[in-house]
Design a protein that fits this description.
- The chain has 409 residues and is an alpha+beta fold.
- Among the domains are: 1-110, Beta Polymerase, domain 2; 372-408.
- Helices cover 50% and strands 9% of the residues.
- A seven-stranded mixed sheet has the order 3-4-5-2-1-8-9. A two-stranded antiparallel ribbon has the order 6-7. It has a two-stranded parallel sheet with strand order 10-11.
- α12 crosses α17.
- The termini are far apart.
Length: 409
C-alpha cells in the first residue's frame, strides 16, 4: 500500500498558495485492507474512505470509462493493480494531475509542473472531452488564477468548444452546474469565468440570456463602455473587488438581462428593460436551482436597480414603495445587498469605477427614517387591522417627506 497526496494540494504548494483541502490516493490496496486499518467507507459510486483520525478523504486508485451522458455517465474500476499514473490520467488538467509522497517527492507524468511555470491550463488526455462538467471547472480555474496570468491552452479551449457544441452540457444537473457557477462567482476575477465560457461557446448553451447581452449597445453618455455584455463583466469585476457576497454577485450578473430583449430599432435605449428582464432572471434562477436568497435578490435588483440610481430624485411615495418591496423592516440585510448591487452597477462603467455613489447613504437614511415610525402610539389610538396598516403607511410617508426635505436643505 502506497499513499500519495494528489491534485489541488500539490498544485497550490508548488504555486506557493495556502493548502486547505488535501486529497489522498491509495495505490495497491483493497477495500478490505482499508477497512481493517479503521478507514470508514463513504463513496457509493467508487471506493472513498475517511481516515479514522483526521477525517480526510482517501480514495483507492481507479480508472474510469465513459458509459453514458453527462457528469455521472462513467464506470469506475478500482483494484490494487491500478497504478498511480493510471489514476492521474483520468484527471482534468495537468496542473491537477500531480502527486507527491510523504517525502514531497513529485510524480508528474503529464508535465503539470511545466504548465504551472508556463501559466497554462491544459487538459491531461483526450478523455477530458468525456465529462461536460470540466468546461465549467476549467473556466472556474481560469477565474481563480487569472491574477497569476494563467490562460487556457488553445487545444483545451478547442475541446471545450467541441463539448459545448455536442449537447453534452445539457446533460449536466442543475445542482452540479450551480456548485461550479457559485464557486466561480466567488473567485477573485469571476468575470474571467464568463469570458472563458463565452469564448468556448458554453455561455450561449448554459446562459443564453447573458450571452445575448454582448453586442447590445447602451447610451454612451451613461455607459462609456457601450456594450451591455462588457458592462455586465465590469459590474461582476467590481463586485469581486469590493468583496461582495454570492447573492450580490449573482444579482450583478443578471441585473441587465432585459436589455437583451430590446429590438434593434430601439437601440441604444432600453425602455422598461427592468420589467422585461424579470422573466429571464426567473428562468436562469430556476434552471440552476439557485438558493432562495440569490433568486430573490436577483429579481429585486433586476426590477429596482434604476430606482436605486435615481434615489435622490424619487418622490417620498415611490421611496416608500421601494422600501416596502424589500421588507426593510424585517429584512434589513437584503436592502443592504440591494444597495451594494446598485453601487457595483454604477461603478461597473469604463472610467467611472472610482466615482462616489451618494445614493447608497441616502437609501440607508431613508430606510432608517421609515423604521423609526413607532407602532405602539398608533395602537394606543385604537388603530387595528387594515386601518393600522394604513396609519403606519401614512406615518412612514410623513417621515420620508421630512427626511427628503432635510437631505435637500
Amino acid at each position: 500500500m502506497q499513499i500519495y497526496k494528489v491534485g489541488g494540494a500539490v498544485r497550490d504548494r508548488l504555486l506557493g498558495k495556502p493548502v486547505t483541502d488535501i486529497d489522498w490516493v491509495v495505490v495497491g490496496a483493497t477495500t478490505e485492507e482499508m477497512l481493517a486499518k479503521g478507514f470508514r467507507p463513504v463513496g457509493a459510486d467508487f471506493p472513498v474512505f475517511l481516515h479514522p483520525k483526521s477525517g480526510e478523504e482517501y480514495a483507492l486508485a481507479r480508472t474510469e470509462r465513459k458509459s453514458g451522458r453527462g457528469y455521472g455517465g462513467f464506470t469506475f474500476h478500482a483494484s490494487p493493480e491500478v497504478t498511480l499514473e493510471e489514476d492521474l490520467i483520468r484527471r482534468d488538467l495537468t496542473i491537477n494531475a500531480m502527486a507527491e509522497d510523504d517525502q514531497q517527492n513529485l510524480t508528474d507524468p503529464y508535465h503539470g509542473q511545466r504548465d504551472l511555470e508556463a501559466r497554462l491550463l491544459r487538459h491531461v488526455s483526450p478523455a477530458f472531452a468525456e465529462d461536460p462538467l470540466r468546461v465549467l471547472r476549467v473556466a472556474r480555474f481560469a477565474a481563480r488564477y487569472a491574477g497569476l496570468d494563467f490562460t487556457v491552452a488553445s487545444e483545451t479551449l478547442e475541446l471545450m468548444r467541441q463539448l459545448s457544441e455536442s449537447g453534452e452540457l445539457e446533460a449536466l444537473t442543475a445542482e452540479r452546474s450551480w456548485k461550479e457557477i457559485s464557486r466561480a462567482l466567488m473567485e477573485d476575477q469571476p468575470q474571467v469565468f464568463i469570458e472563458v465560457l463565452r469564448e468556448c461557446g458554453a455561455l450561449k448553451v448554459l446562459m443564453p440570456e447573458v450571452d445575448a447581452l454582448f453586442g447590445v449597445p447602451q447610451p454612451e453618455a451613461h455607459h462609456p463602455e457601450i456594450d451591455t455584455g462588457a458592462h455586465t463583466l465590469s459590474v461582476l469585476e467590481q463586485a469581486a473587488r469590493h468583496k461582495q457576497p454570492l447573492t450580490v454577485r449573482w444579482a450583478c450578473l443578471l441585473h441587465d438581462l432585459g436589455k437583451g430583449l430590446t429590438p434593434k430599432e430601439e437601440w441604444p435605449r432600453h425602455i422598461a428593460h427592468e420589467h422585461k428582464g424579470l422573466k429571464l432572471i426567473k428562468a436562469v434562477n430556476e434552471r440552476f436551482k439557485a438558493p432562495k436568497d440569490c433568486q430573490e435578490l436577483a429579481l429585486l435588483v433586476g426590477e429596482y436597480h434604476t430606482h436605486g440610481h435615481r434615489a435622490l430624485e424619487l418622490k417620498p411615495s415611490t421611496l416608500l414603495e421601494l422600501l416596502q418591496s424589500f421588507d426593510v423592516y424585517r429584512r434589513p440585510q437584503r436592502f443592504e445587498e440591494f444597495i451594494a448591487a446598485c453601487e457595483m452597477d454604477a461603478r461597473g462603467r469604463k472610467g467611472l469605477e472610482q466615482r462616489s455613489y451618494p445614493q447608497a447613504d441616502y437609501l440607508r437614511g431613508a430606510a432608517n427614517a421609515a423604521r423609526t415610525v413607532a407602532v405602539q402610539p398608533l395602537l394606543e389610538k385604537g388603530f387595528k387591522g387594515p386601518e393600522l396598516g394604513e396609519a403606519i403607511k401614512r406615518e412612514r410617508l410623513k417621515a420620508l417627506k421630512a427626511y427628503k426635505e432635510a437631505a435637500s436643505a
